[in-house]
Fold:
Amino acid sequence: MLSQNQIEKNIEWLRENGSAPVRYLTYLHLLGAAPGSGEMRELWERVEEDPGSHEIFFKQRDDGSWLSGGPWASKPSYVPKSGYTPVSPKYVTTSWILSILGDMGYDVRDERVKRACEYNLTYQWPNGVLAETRDPPEEMGSDPDPRNVPCRMSAQLTGLAKVGMGRDPRLRRSFELLKRWAREDGGWVHEGHRDGTSAPYKIWDRSCPWSTYFATTSLFYSGDPSDEEAYRSGLDFLIWHLDQKPEHEIRRFFWHGHDTVRELLMFSEAGVEPTQRSVKAILDWLEGMYLPDETHFRYVGKPVSKMSVREDGASTVVMKYRLFHLIEDDWLTYYMTRIASNFQTGQGR
Structure:
């Protein structure tokens, strides 16, 4: 675990070397600066002027949506005949890009972000389902107990929650539906994996880490206190699942649905003990990337372009998105410093 002295030196490094979004987030989350102060307004102007911000918003479409590659993802290799949706194809559409913007500090007060959120809400059915078709058959859209399909819906909710839409009254029925879909083990899984309709050769007897990560993240960032019990149960499942595996398997940035660094951030804010087995294993692995003399972290591993499903658990296409704004020196140092500070001070939620 980083010492207090190392945390302070890291913060100095971030202030001097971080990209515009990282500097802003450092002042906000590690130095406790007031968002409305003159200094923070100036830092935010630099975020808006950042080349990454310019590229993302340049590629936004008139209706508020995205279907575009960039530094965050490869150019879409296909578009379904029915067209794209808020979440398909993966990594290049609106929900995925809203998550990036939220991590950069953007929220729904920005008119461009608001337009994207309103676009996504056009896919909300009357019963709260966030779907990939706008006009469901009446019996499906009004069914008060719709089929449990949390996979893509939880990814849509995550994008919306990360930009501050979680407390919008229109989304409350979607969050309540998501919570009703939680399994007894605290996680989530598509109903088709329980009854065999999605994969007859395998019936799941537990929740899915992929669905659970997104469902938990959306509830964690919703901003509504009524979601706390559900997201804590989700975090418990994620830890349980990590605990089932050998340590060498979980020492990855992305594995079997787990986004380990962002999970560590939630664990650290939720009061999970850093000595817990799987948490400690991942922390120890990541701290091996720390350069104490240079007071920052540096990614150690394969280039993203060389990654494969067989050796790394996911393809280059997937990892390009998953590792964007995560393994760069400043982003990795920011996340690890914030995580260490939370664990050390116990000043989580």
The longest strand covers residues 254-255. The radius of gyration is 20 Å.
